Amino acid sequence: MNGLPLSLPRVDSTDSLFADPLAFLARARAQCGDVFVLREHGPIFSRASDCSGVIAVFGEHRLRQVLTETDTFALPMSAAAKMALPKNLVNLNRGLHSMREPEHGRHKRLLTGTANRALFDAHRSGMQTDLSRFCEMLNGDGRISVVSRMRELTAKLASRLFLGPQCEEDAELTFLLSAYFTLRREASSPNAHDPLQYRDALIGAGRQLDRALRARIRRYRKAPAGECAGLLQRLATAGQPGSPALSEDEIVGHANVMFVSSTEPVAISLAWLLLVLSQLPDLRRALRAESAARASSPASPCGAPLLERVINETLRLLTPNALMVRATTQAASLQGVALPARCEIVVCPFLVHREANAFARPHAFLPSRWETARPSPYEYFPFGAGGHFCAGRNLALSLIGEVLSTLLSRFDFVLDIEQFIDWRIHIMLMPKGDPTLTAHPVDERRDTPSPKWRGPVAELFHFAPGLS
User: Fold this and answer.
1) 63-102 residues labelled b (16+ CB within 10 A) or e (exposed)
2) Distance between the two ends of the chain, CA-based, in angstroms?
3) Residue 322 phi/psi, 5° resolution?
4) Hey, CA dihedral for 145, 121, 97, 310, is it positive or negative?
5) From CA 313, how far away is CA 404, in angstroms rounded?
6) Which residues belong to the annotated binding site for heme?
7) Do residues 344 and 441 lie in contact, with contact meaning Cβ atoms separated by under 8 Å?
8) In degrees rounded to 5, what are phi and psi of residue 116?
9) How far apart are CA 427 and CA 21, in angstroms?
10) pLDDT tens digits, residue range 390-423?
11) Is residue 208 assigned to a domain?
């Protein structure tokens, strides 16, 4: 089979796709149904010059197949491969997404068993110290560019999880990890007119990062990991003495990918959460009350249900992974639809999260829905689903909850002034530009004025009536 099935409906043109991909896909789905052709030949989001065409896919059963059959529906070619970067730089991005079974399953079990709540709890005290320093900075100057500040904060916290107590002396490694990711993000963006312009800079930064990671791994392997060890040391010493569970190359690839997954998605999620909450003073007050109740009864088993609901609802409506791409490695049948090899498949969690059969009033911001909502992993998947769901998902959620709870208990975050807020997809769905928030020290005796947002972000969803 060489082409896409003639039975599939086609969109007339994709000329306006990149101007607003989410609205474009919503209109196309309304016109064409759950499976339709976006492009007859060649790629849109992937980089494969031999791509046999592009389709968009919706529907829980189809998504389940695409996201679970990872050997057939694989991740597309990486930017590193497309730019013919040196082998050691290609390896920097060789995490779970690059693997097939049974290797994928073995590595995933090891990573999810290492990047877990126990790792988070081992470093919680140190992260609280970092958060206290951040709050001291806010006391001095509460006006922040929210995306930039959340990136700085999450990089600091992730470096503690990643490196353990050595994070202060290993600040250079954190810098290299962040710098390499920033360069790769720009080169990987569909908006990059000439990704090759980043090639020399990527090679320079990547080689430094590769050397630094390998030096740490070799040092860590000389002694067993203690309770306070960071993720990198735990991976380096996993397995039996003299028989490590992972090779040096494997650790380098996983370490880089795990650091990225603990920083950028967390930072963008926190930025969206603070922006959303800036519009809802009563909800901010309720979250502070919940946090205070937890602090006064730390042994309570109740957790923070309101905080969890707010996080879930924000990740539903403003999910960082608004678009996902897969490619067929061979001719395949997708729920009865015959697809050729090298077919690009577009999945849109942004729209999937707005399915009325899974979420009543799907366009409303309504945290209370999570009191009863139990969507399947293919109806709600802000961290991916199936074989390639993010191995750092629980770590990321723990970070988001810890940061948000700490910040909201001490400060009331509002927009600096009424602001026009737009969005963009730059690998992730994120605020366009860098909106400004002001952090006012909490004073329950008075209400903090909350300037309103306007602009395209207000068109992505609406606040449920009665929510403020």
Assistant:
1) bbbbbbbbebbbbbbbbbebbebeebbbbbbbbbbbbeee
2) 55
3) -65, -30
4) negative
5) 14
6) 390
7) no
8) -125, -175
9) 12
10) 888 889 999 999 999 999 999 999 999 999 999 9
11) yes
| Beta-bridge partner residues of 10 | 37
Report the alpha-carbon distance of residue 358 to residue 351 in Å, rounded: 12
Sign of CA dihedral 328, 190, 176, 267: negative
111/56 Cα distance (integer angstroms): 31
Give tens-digit pLDDT for 372-393: 999 999 999 999 998 778 888 8
Rounded Cα distance, 353 and 321, in Å: 11
Domains in the chain: how many in total?
1
Tokens representing 360 are 């009543």
CA distance 31 to 24: 11
Alpha helices of 74-116 — where are they, by DSSP H?
Answer: 79-82, 87-92, 103-114
CATH of the domain at 196: 1.10.630.10
Q: Is residue 22 part of a domain?
A: no
DSSP 279: T
Separation of alpha carbons 236 and 221, rounded Å: 6
Gap between the Cα atoms of 320 and 198, Å rounded: 24
Nearest alpha carbon to residue 82 among 184, 181, 180 = 184
Under DSSP, the state recorded for 298 is T
**Distance between CA 212 and CA 308 in Å, rounded?**
37
| 3-state SS class at 390 | coil
Q: Before 102, cis peptide (omega within 30)? A: yes
Contact between 14 and 45 (Cβ < 8 Å):
no
Instruction: Quick: pLDDT tens for 190-237.
Output: 666 676 788 888 899 999 999 999 999 999 999 888 889 999 999 999
Does the CA dihedral 424-96-110-171 come out positive or negative?
A: negative
What separation in angstroms does the CA of 14 have from each of 19, 39, 81, 324, 376? 10, 8, 26, 17, 31
The whole domain housing 265 covers 91-319+382-463
- The mean pLDDT of 442-451, rounded to a whole number, is 83
Within-domain flag for 425:
yes
- Burial letters 263-296, b for 16+ CB under 10 A, else e: bbbbbbbbbbbbbbbbbbbebbbebbebbeebee
**Residue 118 belongs to some domain of the structure:** yes
